[in-house]
Specification:
This protein has 307 residues and is an alpha+beta fold. The protein has six helices and eight strands. The strands form two sheets. Strands 3-8-4-5-6-7 form a six-stranded antiparallel β-sheet, with helices on both faces. Strands 1-2 form a two-stranded parallel sheet.
Length: 307
């Protein structure tokens, strides 16, 4: 072992080459300036003995570094703030777009509901107008038939009056035949027919209402359906379907409980119930309500027997 190994070194730490070069350059420049100034002075000038203290390189490096770090921190903070603002703006735009889409969907739904409601109201109004038109046509048709029937009846009565000079035996024979026919027509119904007739007559005086099914207002097919239901018999709701049931019978062979119809059998526009004695009960129209009428007041087009 060397005898100097335990002696610590008194040498200063070696500076980096870049720092030494920088310091040497600064010092060289200063010394060069002093030398030039000395050479330019008078020959007998006294030598310069003033010592110039140079700033240390370490103090210059620390100040610059602190300024750079501060500038970098400020730039980073500004960038983070910009990113935060941009993120908030994007979130606000997305929220606004979502709310606008939801509002548009709600507006479309309301508009569609309003269109559907308007279409439904228009369809109901059209159906009501069509029904009123059919009812008016039916009333007009019945009025024409009544007028024609009365004209025909008046003509027949006139012809009958001109034949009053017939023999007594003939008149007596006709009277007996007519009386027999009248007794047949006024025969009281029985069983199921009696129940149907009783129900129909019990509703006389009730109001006529389109679509009415009782208990205090009826339309024609609603009354017929309810009368048969009171006897335990199911009938369709519509007059055309009711007159299509059972078997067709002539108006000269009617029995109490038969269903009378006006129009064609499968396309009738009005129905009523024959109650015997040449009369029927039906829900006629809004002005008369449920009434009992004779067949010649509004002669039906035909009849069906369901019992």
């Amino acid at each position: 072992m060397s005898h100097t190994a335990h002696i610590p070194s008194h040498r200063k730490p070696r500076r980096s080459a870049s720092k030494l070069a920088l310091r040497a350059g600064v010092a060289g420049g200063v010394l060069g300036t002093i030398a030039v100034a000395g050479a330019a002075g008078p020959a007998n000038a006294e030598p310069v003995t003033e010592t110039i203290e140079m700033p240390t390189l370490g103090s210059l490096d620390t100040a610059g570094l602190a300024s750079a770090v501060a500038a970098s921190a400020e730039a980073s903070q500004q960038e983070a703030l910009d990113q935060s603002l941009e993120s908030q703006e994007n979130a606000a735009l997305q929220k606004a777009a979502k709310e606008a889409k939801k509002a548009k969907a709600e507006a479309d739904r309301k508009a569609e509901a309003e269109r559907a409601e308007k279409a439904r109201a228009e369809a109901e109004a059209k159906a009501k107008a069509e029904q009123e038109r059919l009812e008016a046509e039916a009333r007009a048709s019945r009025d024409r038939e009544r007028t024609q029937l009365r004209t025909t009846s008046a003509s027949d009565n006139s012809s009958s009056g001109s034949n009053t000079s017939d023999s007594g035996s003939t008149g007596s024979s006709d009277s007996g035949s007519s009386t027999g026919s009248s007794n047949t027509e006024t025969q009281a119904p029985s069983g199921t027919a009696a129940a149907i007739v009783a129900f129909a007559r019990a509703q006389i005086g009730d109001a006529y209402v389109m679509g009415g099914t009782g208990p205090n207002s009826w339309d024609c097919s609603g009354l017929v359906q309810a009368a048969y239901a009171s006897a335990g018999i199911d009938l369709p709701r519509i007059s055309g379907d009711q007159s299509s049931r059972g078997t067709s019978v002539s108006l000269s062979n009617l029995q109490p409980g038969d269903v009378l119809y006006w129009g064609s059998r499968s396309g009738s526009y009005h129905v009523a119930i024959y109650v015997g004695g040449g009369k029927y009960v039906g829900a006629q129209n809004p002005s008369t309500g449920v009434v009992e009428r004779s067949l010649d007041w509004d002669t039906p087009s035909g009849a069906v027997r369901i019992l």
